[in-house]
Amino acid sequence: MATNFDQIIQSGLKAHKLAVAERTAIEARLAAGTIEGLAADLVTLGATVPGQIAARRAAKESTVSQAVALANVASILTAIRQAVKSHGAPADVRVAYGVGSKLDKATPKSVFAAATGVLRAVTSDLNAARSFGVLDGDLAALTSAVAAAQTADTEQDDRRASAPAATKTRNAAAKNVEGAVKRISSAGALHYATDAKLRAQFEALVASEGRPKKSAPKPV
């Protein structure tokens, strides 16, 4: 079951407000720093929930950027290969340029391997490349496009790696908040054991946790 972080935050805020109001009465029953720790975890949780969304959005955006960068490389590659094919280049030259080879423009490994082959073929015989209509500007454009795609690939890996870290921080904070709420509820209920009103307020912090729903009574 997915964790309801909004619910945890609201529960934590209620517990913190009540604990602060009744601090002098219940603090001795709590571990040192419980109230302050709850406040810190609420801040962390509140900060990392949107942070988590941002991390995943950034990862998604970087995927789009990488796709565009790879598509640019693929476009230049296919145009160069077509030029080589159109000029009736010998079979070994066509092989060197990758003419007829499958190019998966969505896969970095495929695109980078194809680009490496074409760049090697062009630089190994510049005169032949020029005879196919491939100019220095085309070589520069391909080199620049490959560099941009490699940068996008690295950025995507970095951003994807940041998402699990944000998740781990968020989950730890949520667990801490849940634990603090239970301890504050217990401390308050015990301290105000004979004060029905205040005891009920503390018990209400966790009243909905772990209790099965009551079924309607069956008609006799």
Task: Please identify the structural class as seen in this structure.
Answer: mainly alpha
Question: How many strands appear in the DSSP assignment?
Answer: 0
Average pLDDT reading: 83
- Poorly predicted spans: 47-52
Proportion in β-strands: under 5%
Number of domains: 1
Largest sheet: none
Cα radius of gyration in angstroms: 32 Å
Treating each run of at least 4 consecutive H or I residues as one helix, how many helices?
8
H and E order: HHHHHHHH
Helix content percent band: over 70%
Shape: rod-shaped
Distance between the ends: 36 Å
Characterise this structure.
- The chain has one domain (5-203).
- The model is unreliable at 47-52 (pLDDT under 50).
- With 220 residues, it is an all-alpha fold.
- The protein is built from eight helices and no strands.
Sum this structure up briefly.
It is built from 8 helices and no strands. With 220 residues, the protein is mainly α.
What tags apply to this protein structure?
about 220 residues, 8 helices, mainly alpha, about 75% helix
List the helices and strands and how they pair.
Elements (H helix, E strand, L loop, with lengths): L4 H17 L1 H4 L7 H53 L4 H7 L10 H17 L1 H6 L4 H56 L4 H8 L17
